[in-house]
Each structure stands twice: as C-alpha cells, then as structure tokens.
Amino acid sequence: MPGLQDKVVIVTGAGGGLGRSYAHFLAGNGALVVVNDLGGARDGSGSGTSMADKVVDEIVGAGGRAVADYSSVATREGAEAIVATAIDNFGAVHGVVSNAGILRDGAFHKMTDENWDAVIQVHLYGGYYVTRAAWPHMREQKFGRVVMATSTSGLYGNFGQANYGAAKLGLVGLLNTLAIEGAKYGITANGVAPMAATRMTADIAPQEVLDKLNPDHVAPAVGYLVSEENQESGSVFVVGGGLVQRVAQFQNDGVTFGTPPTLDEITKRWAEISDMSHAKLGTNPVG
Asked: Are 24 and 73 part of one and the same domain?
C-alpha cells in the first residue's frame, strides 16, 4: 500500500512532545518530514535551532529522511518559509500537521489581551497561515492531507484556558470548511484532540494520569489521517492512552414556532428545546 511512502509532510512544533512523536512515526513509515520548531519556551518566548535539529538527527540516524525548519507559524512570512523548506528540499508538500502551540493559562477574570492574542496567534493563525501556504500546492496536485491539533479544552472547556480553548475550537471551524472546499481536489482535513504527557501538560494533570499518556499512542492516528488511504474528512478524534474515538456535534429535532414566541411560550418549551435524549448527528441547515 502507498501509505506514507515518499509523502512530504510538514509537522509544526515537532521539536518535542507530540510533534516529535508524529515526525518519528511519519518518517518511520516512509514519509519525508519537515521538522518545524521555533525552539521557544512553553509560553512562546525565546527561540533556537537545537530542538528541531535534534529530532532531525534522530530520524536520519534511524534511516529516515527529514529536514529542520525554525520559522514561526504565527506569521504569514514564517509559514511561507516552512512550506518553501518542503518544496526546496523535497519538491512537494502533501501533508500539514498543524501541531505548534503555546500556553498562557489563567482564569478569565485575569486574562490579559497580550496572553489572549499570543495564544490565538500561534494556534489559530498558525493553523491558518501554514495551511494557507500549502493549499495551492495541494490543489494543483489534487492531493493533500491536513491535520489540525485541536483539544478537549476547545471541545468541552477547561478552567484557566479560555484563550487556548477558543483557539482550538476555532481550528475545528477551519477544518470543517477546508473539508468542504478541498473535497473535489482530493484534500482531506481532520482534527486530533490528543491526550498525552508533554511539557504542555506537565502541570495540568496528575502524574499518575500522565504516566498512562505516552505521546507515541497518538502518532499512529495522525499517521493514518495523513496517509493516502485516508478518505475521512471533516472529522475530529480524541486520541490518547490507547483510545481513538471520534467526537461530533449532535442536534435534536427542536421546537418550531409558527410566529415569534412570547417569553412565556418559549420558557414553557425550553425543556423540550434543550432535551438531547433523541439527538442525531448534526448537519448544516443552510449548507
């Protein structure tokens, strides 16, 4: 099977944690990997080349093919440079795994504009910029695989992560549209909400939980979504600790009012409106 053989895949934030696992898995299955990492701290400060270089050295030492890139995903120029690294070194770009991220957690009443903007810029704008730079190449070759790193913090919320959760759910909205627009060009777009022990989650979950969440458990699902065999598109998967499960939005039949209801009328029907006991998979009513 073609699988990942000779597919050129960009993995952002691949200098450690989940990104490193993705890069190793992809290269180990025949892909040509652009290991992108700015080399900064967890909060996005600083930069360096050693993280990306180390992962490339590991991959090449194991017989794989990879090159390093140190550009920031948070700017159009940085994203275009990442895609140029793929084209210049491997002649194509077949897949983008938008994994780069930072954390600046804090309760919402303490949230600063700076911390809000920084997280949105790296996660949401980063996902947009890198995919946008790769998109024309994918359309032209009529093949592409996009994987966005979303999060259960975006899907369900998490205390202290308003900025992170908003960015991560924003990526779901992005991939939903990319799946529609990419369909006739052989491009799929999906999301993975990983559960893994990395420096990003070191102080978020108890150690006994983290001990069960090896990043290597997540990489095979990402590898499949990037592969030629994958035809899934517009879906989100929670992956971690051996579990791979699809999550989706559901809707009930709702209540239809012939005329605009009064406050009393809608109040009386609200339990019925919000009842999800007979819900089914949601669809876009105007799509």
From this structure: yes
Q: Checking DSSP bridges between strand 250-251 and strand 8-12, what pairing results, if any?
A: unpaired
pLDDT level of residue 251 (50, 70, 90 thresholds) = very high
pLDDT tens across 224-240, in order?
Answer: 999 999 999 999 999 99
Residues annotated as part of the active site: 164
pTM for this model (two decimals): 0.91
Between 156 and 1, the more confident residue is 156
Q: Give yes or no: residues 78 and 30 share one domain.
A: yes
User: Residue 214 sits in which domain range?
Assistant: 6-247
Residues 171/191, Cβ–Cβ less than 8 Å: yes
Rounded CA separation 27/65 (Å): 6
Say yes or no: 192 and 277 in one domain.
Answer: no
Least confident segment among 68-82, 135-149, 212-226, 244-258: 212-226
Q: Any idea what the CATH number is for the domain that residue 139 is in?
A: 3.40.50.720
Per DSSP bridges, beta strands 236-240 and 187-194 are parallel
Co-location of 194 and 157 in the same domain: yes
**Two structure tokens written together for 91:** 């002649």
- Same domain for 108 and 88, yes or no, is yes
* CA-closest candidate to residue 193, choices 163, 177, 213: 213
Phi and psi at residue 168, in whole multiples of 5°?
-70, -35
- Count of domains in the chain? 2
Three-state secondary-structure class, residue 9? strand
